[in-house]
Write a structure and sequence with these properties.
Helix content: 10-25%
Radius of gyration: 22 Å
Number of domains: 2
Number of strands: 17
CATH class of the largest domain: Alpha Beta
Shape: globular
Order of helices and strands: HEEEEEEEEEEHEHEEEEEEHH
Strand order of the largest sheet: 11-17-16-15-14-13-12
Length: 345
């Protein structure tokens, strides 16, 4: 093990509040970090620095100089490294101290003292592996089908909400809210306002779907665990939305901290040739604004809920997907807390 900063292990409650470890999370849109640029972010309750090396390689470091703990994000970008502004200590993209200008040859040099996270850039977004063991290899990442299918055209929508990350994901595992909260939407005005649901298992997660309606409203959602957690759903489109069939969304929600969430929605359609061009034109000129209006309805609702809203509920059959998600994450948080406690005992 490298000599990184040791901290008190997280409890199950802390992991449940700030996000699951040992998986990939979407971090930010790729354009947040321009060539030669740096970006400070808070994710999973910790501060991180993203920077692009001179060759374009993206790096993600804990935003803490190993010397005195000053934020590296206030330092200087030196091509393949960052120099802390406080005392000039230079840290490479893998977290290794490369130079201590104030005392050349001191014992800090050559040691990997800053946590560096594996990162991938996918469909316009940065994904990072948040592991409990900084020296372990990341798990494989199987990307959502619509983000790698050449017959799919997608737009990434990014926002930050002042609501717990669980609220954002639970909102997506609650298809019935589309018939009420989004009733005046251009695509969710149809369908019944009552329904029955079921959970259907898959080899990568589960579907939560209406049993008595399909292809009318927000009638189903699939929750997937493929190295990263994400959801896929489809909403039927009226003919005025142009060719391409149903409108799909791949969604991810990453905790910023216990009270705030970074949300990622890839809005997509399966289109080729001239239909692809028509879809992208209509999206930018007409549909994007309407989609933001729907997203704003979700944001306002979730931000208006009390932080402990999920502690005093009266759930019913429509909430089976939400309950399944909570049990899964609660069990995972407790298991990871035990793992962390065992590694430091």
């Amino acid at each position: 093990m490298v000599n990184r900063l040791q901290r008190t292990p997280l409890t199950g409650d802390e992991i449940f509040a700030t996000g699951m470890r040992n998986q990939w999370h979407a971090v930010c849109p790729s354009h947040f970090v321009e060539p030669g640029g740096m970006k400070r972010l808070r994710r999973l309750g910790e501060d991180w620095l993203l920077f692009r090396q001179s060759d374009g390689t993206l790096r993600m470091l804990a935003d803490r100089c190993p010397h005195r703990g000053a934020p590296l994000s206030q330092g200087l970008h030196l091509g393949d490294r960052v120099a802390c502004k406080y005392h000039g200590v230079q840290v490479g993209g893998d977290g290794t101290v490369l130079s201590v200008p104030g005392m050349p040859g001191c014992n800090l040099e050559g040691k990997q003292l800053v946590t560096s996270l594996p990162v991938r850039e996918v469909a316009g977004a940065v994904l990072a592996w948040f592991g409990t063991d900084p020296d372990a290899e990341p798990a494989p990442l199987d990307l959502p089908d619509p983000l790698v299918d050449e017959d799919v055209s997608a737009f990434l929508c990014y926002a930050e909400w002042s609501a717990p990350w669980r609220f954002a994901l639970e909102n997506l595992l609650d298809p019935m809210h589309g018939a009420f909260l989004h009733h005046e939407s251009h695509s969710m005005f149809g369908g019944e306002t009552s329904a029955k649901f079921r959970i259907r298992e898959t080899d990568r997660g589960f579907f939560f779907e209406k049993t008595d309606q399909r292809g009318v409203n927000f009638d189903w959602v699939e929750f997937c665990r493929t190295g990263a957690d994400w959801v896929d759903l489809e909403i039927p489109y009226p003919p005025t939305a142009g060719p391409g069939g149903s409108f799909g969304i791949v969604g991810m929600g990453t905790p910023i901290d216990a009270e705030n969430t970074a949300v990622f929605f890839w809005r997509y359609r399966r289109v080729q040739g001239w239909e692809r061009d028509v879809w992208r034109f209509l999206y930018r000129t007409t549909l994007e604004e309407r989609h933001w209006e729907v997203l704003e309805q979700d944001r306002v609702m979730l931000e208006s809920m009390a932080a402990d809203a999920d502690q005093a509920e009266n759930l019913y059959q429509h909430d089976l997907g939400v309950m399944r998600l909570r049990r899964l994450y609660r069990a995972q948080a407790d298991a990871q807390a035990r793992e962390l406690a065992g590694s430091t005992s």
